[in-house]
Amino acid sequence: MLSSKKSVYNFNAGPSALPREVLEKAQSELVDFKDSGMSIMEMSHRSATYEEVHNQAIERLKSLFSIPENYEVLLLQGGASLQFAMIPMNFLASGEKAAYVMSGAWSDKALKEGKTIGDVYEAASTKETNYNKVPDLSEITWNEEDAYVHITSNNTIFGTQFQEFPETNDVPLIADMSSDILSRPIDVSKFGMIYAGAQKNLGPSGVTVAIIRKDLLENVNESIPTILKYSTHASNNSLYNTPPSFGIYMLGEVLGWMEKQGGLEQIQKNNEEKAKLIYDAIDNSGGFYTGHAEKGSRSLMNITFRVADEVLEKQFLAEAKEAGFVGLNGHRSVGGCRASAYNSVPLAACQALEQFMKNFQAKHQK
Ligand code: PMP
After folding, report:
1. Strands (E), 11-115
2. Could you say which of 133, 142, 146, 176 is catalytic?
3. What angle is formed at CA 140 by the lines to CA 336 and CA 150, rounded to 5 degrees?
4. Are 114 and 107 in contact (CB under 8 A)?
5. Distance CA 296, CA 313 (A)
6. Contact by Cβ (8 Å): 214, 71
7. 106 annotated active-site
8. Ligand 1 within 6 A of 197 CB?
C-alpha cells in the first residue's frame, strides 16, 4: 500500500510518470529483495543476484526494441547530456566532420558540445520558424565521408517528432531518443547509435541507455579517458564501474510492464489514442487553444499548445493545478502549455485533461 493517498494526473516532461504497479512492486521489494535480507541498493554490483537484474534489463531492452545481434546495449550514467560530449569524443576523428540536424533546443546543445570537440555543422534547421516542425527529410544534407549524422527524434520542448528518418546509408545515423524511446517500433538497424536518458519513457533518472552498432565500437578514439570510451563499457557489460543499480532495477521493471502491455505495437496504439484526445481538444476548440507544432510534425509524447490569451493561459494553468494536473507548464524557454503523455501516463489522465480543457473553454470563452 502506498502511504500517500493523494492522486494526481502527472504530465511532467521528465522525470515523469512511472507505472503505478511498478512503483508498488518496487515498494514491496525495497527492504528485502528476493529473500536476500537486504535491499537491492545495499547489494554488491558483482553479486549474482544483482547481475541477474542487470542482465534481465538488457535482455528486455533487446527483445522489446528488436535490437539486432550486431548491437551492444549499454547502461551508462551522465544523462543524454554526457552523450552529447561522448559521441564526438568517441566517433569524430580529427580531419573528419559530423552533421547535426537542428530541430530544437536539445539538438542545439548537442551541436554546441560537438563544437568543443571537433568539426561539426548544421545539416538542416527549422529554427527560423521557432522549431514548430522537424526539417523535411529532403532538406537534410550531409557528406558521404562524414563521421556521423546526428538527429533528435523527438523534441521535448517544442513538441515535434520525426515520423521517418533519413536514409544515411554508410554514414552512421545517431539519434537522441531521450523523449520517445520505446514509444513505437523503430527499425534499429537504420541507426549507428540510439541513446536516451531513462527518465521519460524507461524509468527513473540516473540511467542512460546507449545502443551502439558493434563495428563502430571497434573504431573509437583511443586517446580519450577509459571511462569515456564506449568500448570500455561494452567490453565490461556496463559493469566497468559501479552502475546505478537501483535505477537499472527500475528500468528492468518498467520494461517488464511494457512487455505486459503487449509490446511496442500496442504501446504505440495506446500513445496515439492518448495524444489524439488532447490534439482533438485543441483542433476542435475553434482557435481557443492553438497547437505549437505543425500537424505533420506533431509529437505523440509532448503536446504543446497555447490558450487564447495570456491572462486566460495563466488561469488555465492555475485551475489545472487546482484540479490535480501536474507539469502542464510549457518549458521555461518557450512558455505556454505542454502535456507530456509518455508511455506510463494512463489513458484516464488524458481523458481527464481533454474534459478539463473542454470545460475550461466552455466556462471562459467570451
Ligand atoms: N535530449 C532530449 C531530447 C531531452 O528531452 C533531454 C532532457 N529533457 C536531454 C537530451 C537531456 O537529458 P539529460 O538531462 O538526461 O542529460
Report:
1. 71-76, 97-102
2. 176
3. 75
4. no
5. 25
6. yes
7. yes
8. yes
Instruction: Decide: 178 in ligand 1 pocket, CB within 6 A.
Output: yes
Whether 299 and 225 map to the same domain: the answer is no
Tens-place pLDDT, residues 127-186:
999 999 999 999 999 999 999 999 999 999 999 999 999 999 999 999 999 999 999 999
Domain shared by 193 and 49, yes or no: yes
Ligand 1 mutation target, pool 131, 178, 299, most atoms within 8 A of CB: 178
Average pLDDT over residues 304-310: 93
Q: Is 327 in the pocket of ligand 1 (CB under 6 A)?
A: no
Q: Which residues contact 60 (CB under 8 A, 6 or more apart)?
A: 252, 255, 256, 259
* C-alpha dist (Å) from residue 59 to 51, 55, 193, 241, 267: 12, 6, 18, 20, 19
CATH code at 280? 3.90.1150.10
Query: 280: which DSSP letter?
Result: H
User: Which residue has the CA at smallest separation from atom 3 of ligand 1?
Assistant: 178
Q: Which residue has the cell 489514442?
A: 273
Residue whose cell numbers read 541477474: 52
pLDDT tens string 202-246: 999 999 999 999 999 999 999 999 999 999 999 999 999 999 999
Task: Mark whether 234 and 253 lie in a shared domain.
Answer: yes
User: Is 141 within 8 Å of 124 (Cβ atoms)?
Assistant: yes
Q: Which residues form the domain of 236?
A: 23-259
Residue 129 belongs to a domain with what CATH number? 3.40.640.10
- Signed CA dihedral, 86, 87, 90, 94: sign only: negative
Q: Is the CB of 204 inside a 6 Å radius of any atom of ligand 1?
A: no
Q: Which atom of ligand 1 is nearest to the CA of 153?
A: 3
Residue among 81, 103, 181 to mutate when testing ligand 1 (max atoms within 8 A of CB): 81
φ, ψ for residue 235, nearest 5 deg: -75, -10
Same domain, 251 and 267: no
Q: Do 195 and 81 have their domain in common? A: yes
Give me the phi and psi of 291, to 5 degrees please.
-80, 150
